[in-house]
């Protein structure tokens, strides 16, 4: 097992690693709409927050040698299910079909006042030539 800290990703405000690799799977900590360059929360619309969350996940996926193509499962947490369709539209735009498995959970609050958080499990394919 390898616990991973990603320098390019937003820095954790709590005690956790960005991801944990076990064999050819990576378990990615829930990403918030935090801007990596400033480490400040983007508290815009649900659309803006979802894009930032997915961009943060892309950073972690890339650093570990994976991509959205190899996501096996994700969980989406949102503070207002009235924005379910809006979040789904942005989320789906990062994937090609067929889509990974997913759970969406309505919550009463998220850290830092965010409205969207997403965590993932992804496969890390073998490197070409390996």
TrEMBL record:
Keywords: Hydrolase. SUPFAM superfamilies: YjgF-like. It comes from the Bacteria. The keyword Nucleotide-binding does not apply. Its EC number is 3.5.-.-. One of its GO terms (molecular function) is hydrolase activity. Belongs to the RutC family. NCBIfam families: Rid family detoxifying hydrolase. PANTHER family: 2-IMINOBUTANOATE/2-IMINOPROPANOATE DEAMINASE RIDA, 2-IMINOBUTANOATE_2-IMINOPROPANOATE DEAMINASE. This is RidA family protein. It comes from Vreelandella lionensis.
